[in-house]
Design brief:
55% of the residues lie in helices and 20% in strands. The protein is built from eight helices and nine strands.
Length: 295
């Protein structure tokens, strides 16, 4: 009975000792085995591992790809046009020993702040060497690759691999937005006024051309009508002359009839003539011929 009472605590102590010396490495993490604060080994392969109990400690780091969002940063591109930029970086622990030496006991949280500073410095340097048009364009991939490469070189010393950097915001500062919008509005209004002026000028040219064409057509029509009327009058006079030349008596008769028509026309006109006037020769003649005047 006394012997079993002694063995049981020993077995419990041995079990606790064995359990404290065994640990499991997950495939999603990297484990450092520390002895009195110094790194003794690095465990990266998943499986069952051992350590010296009560002497060695474990530090676990996430081996997956992590992300950090930078705070908005004001940068000045090559053309001195200030912009507000922020970015999102993806990274992972590449060298657990260097990572431990760089961040100490702060771990991933401390690394996030260090990476944000590195990315911001890379953003300032890269974007400060290009005009603002390149930063605000739709295709910023070359710029983001430059920022990633520069941040990667600086982060290697921390045992960190920067996988990617993406610009998530590229805007003007709030104090410049109103002025920029006002300038853009003024430019658009000026362009609209220029378009309206050019349209009015084109319309005036078209209207003047149409008016000139109308005048030319009317003038040409009138000229043609005058020519046709003149030719018709000439032809009529030629016909009259030929007809009158064949019968002078008929010419005298028609001329007298026309004179009668014009003289006796109207209700308010009065004419006083002697009955034996030559004007009434054809009216006094029974045959319609002119009566010879007495010698």
């Amino acid at each position: 009975m006394a012997r079993s009472t002694f063995i049981l605590p020993v077995l419990v102590a041995l079990s606790a000792l064995v359990l404290s010396s065994v640990f499991i490495v997950d495939e999603r993490e990297k484990v450092l085995v520390l002895q009195f604060g110094q790194v003794k080994s690095v465990k990266e392969e998943p499986g069952l591992e051992f350590k010296v109990p009560f002497i060695q400690d474990l530090v676990r780091y996430d081996a997956r790809i992590l992300g950090v969002q930078t705070q908005p940063l004001e940068v000045t591109p090559l053309d001195d046009r200030r912009l507000v930029v922020d970015a999102f970086a993806r990274w992972r622990v590449e060298n657990a020993v260097s990572f431990r030496e760089a961040v100490g006991t702060g771990g991933v949280a401390a690394a996030q702040g260090r990476i944000a500073l590195i990315v911001n410095a890379a953003i300032r340097e890269v974007l400060g060497s290009v005009p603002s048009g390149a930063v605000l364009s739709d295709d910023r991939t070359p710029l983001m690759n430059l920022i990633r490469d520069q941040a990667r070189r600086q982060a290697n010393a921390l045992g960190i691999e920067v996988i990617d950097v993406r610009l998530t915001r590229t805007d003007l500062p709030e104090q410049n937005l109103a002025a920029t919008f006002a300038r853009m509005r003024a430019e658009r209004e000026r362009e609209a006024a220029d378009e309206v002026a050019r349209g009015n000028e084109a319309a005036q040219r078209v209207r003047a051309s149409a008016d000139r064409t109308v005048i030319e057509l009317v003038s040409e029509s009138r000229r043609q009508s005058e020519i046709i009327r003149g030719e018709a009058d000439a032809e009529r006079n030629a016909i009259y002359a030929e007809a009158f030349g064949r019968d002078p008596e008929f010419f005298a008769f028609t001329r007298s009839m026309t004179s009668y028509q014009r003289a006796l026309k109207g209700n308010t006109s009065s004419i006083v003539l002697s009955p034996d006037s030559e004007f009434f020769d054809y009216l006094n003649s029974e045959t319609g011929r002119a009566v010879p005047s007495a010698q």
